[in-house]
């Protein structure tokens, strides 16, 4: 039992949920390692939503609201950490939810379907492929990711993110590492923890949803590469300030 007074309570609870997901069989061992990489970058941004992330979250909401067939891609880590937030966002938009695993096994798919019981989720059966991605990693659904115009991915692999961009989809990536291939490839890169990012994207969907002019403005004003550069400057400045 982790006491709430522990200074790293939130971070420890996130780890606890991931380990539980791993023991329950739907978080891949590689997912635990990927989380460790994310945690390291979370330290660098101060474990909070920085202004550049907030800007990207607003742009993400705008793209999702404007989309004809938006899809939220789900994997083991996201099911363990932000299932409720994914369901909430999918209802507000509305957007489809598709389970899309890098380390795909029937067992993991079935367990994630079970976690979303009562909610329509795609991905249990697949009938299409992400062009250029070999093996199970490329499997997807025709009515979901394959025909989507905007895809929200979290903890995504760089190859698949690039393949989705090559398929002319608008890719929104939540990734704490501003230097990952996914971050550098996506159309909108949200450098924030998924536990904060999903809530913020949902908040902006609620704010923007009836305001077409503001949606267009948020998209027009967003420059992804420029925003990533600002994130890198923010991290460098923070490290300078932390020096003794
Ligand atoms: P790429 O292939 O894009 O270069 P990678 O090989 O690092 O990236 P993975 O190992 O699949 O890709 O890791 C997924 C990414 O998700 C990492 O960049 C990591 O920083 C990030 N990440 C991990 N946990 C979280 C989290 N809770 N919130 C946001 N991002 C996270």
Biggest sheet: strand arrangement: 2-1-5-6-7
- Point out poorly predicted stretches: none
Q: Mind summarizing the main beta sheet?
A: 5 strands, parallel
Give the total of domains.
Answer: 1
CATH level 4 superfamily: Phosphopantoate/pantothenate synthetase
Indicate the percent of residues in helices: 40-55%
Q: How would you describe this protein?
A:
With about 240 residues, the chain is an alpha/beta fold. It contains ten helices and seven strands. Helix 1 runs antiparallel to helix 2, helix 1 crosses helix 4 and helix 3 packs antiparallel against helix 10. The protein is globular, with a radius of gyration of 17 Å. The chain starts with 8 loop residues before the first helix and ends with a helix. The protein binds adenosine-5'-triphosphate. The site of adenosine-5'-triphosphate (ATP) has 17 residues, from helix 2 and helix 7.
Keywords, separated by commas or semicolons:
244 residues; alpha/beta; Rossmann fold; five-stranded parallel sheet; globular; binds adenosine-5'-triphosphate
């Amino acid at each position: 039992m982790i006491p709430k007074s522990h200074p790293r309570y939130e971070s420890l609870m996130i780890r606890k949920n991931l380990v539980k997901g791993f023991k329950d069989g739907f978080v891949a061992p590689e997912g635990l390692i990927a989380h460790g990489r994310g945690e390291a970058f979370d330290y660098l941004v101060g474990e909070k939503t920085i202004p550049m992330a907030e800007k990207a979250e607003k742009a993400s909401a705008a793209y999702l609201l404007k989309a004809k067939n938006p899809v939220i891609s789900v994997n083991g880590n996201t099911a363990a950490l932000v299932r409720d937030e994914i369901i909430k966002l999918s209802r507000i938009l509305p957007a489809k939810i598709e389970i899309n695993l890098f380390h795909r096994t029937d067992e993991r798919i079935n367990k994630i379907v079970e976690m979303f019981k009562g909610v329509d989720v795609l991905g249990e059966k697949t009938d299409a492929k992400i062009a250029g991605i070999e093996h199970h990693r490329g499997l997807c659904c025709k009515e979901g990711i394959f025909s989507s115009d905007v895809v929200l991915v979290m903890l995504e692999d760089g190859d698949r993110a690039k393949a989705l961009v090559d398929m002319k989809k608008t890719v929104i990536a939540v990734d704490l590492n501003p230097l990952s291939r996914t971050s550098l490839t996506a159309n909108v890169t949200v450098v924030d923890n998924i536990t904060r990012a999903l809530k913020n994207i949902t908040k902006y969907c609620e704010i923007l949803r009836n305001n077409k002019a503001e949606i267009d403005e948020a998209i027009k004003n967003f420059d992804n590469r420029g925003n990533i550069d600002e994130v890198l400057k923010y991290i460098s400045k923070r490290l300078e300030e932390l020096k003794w």
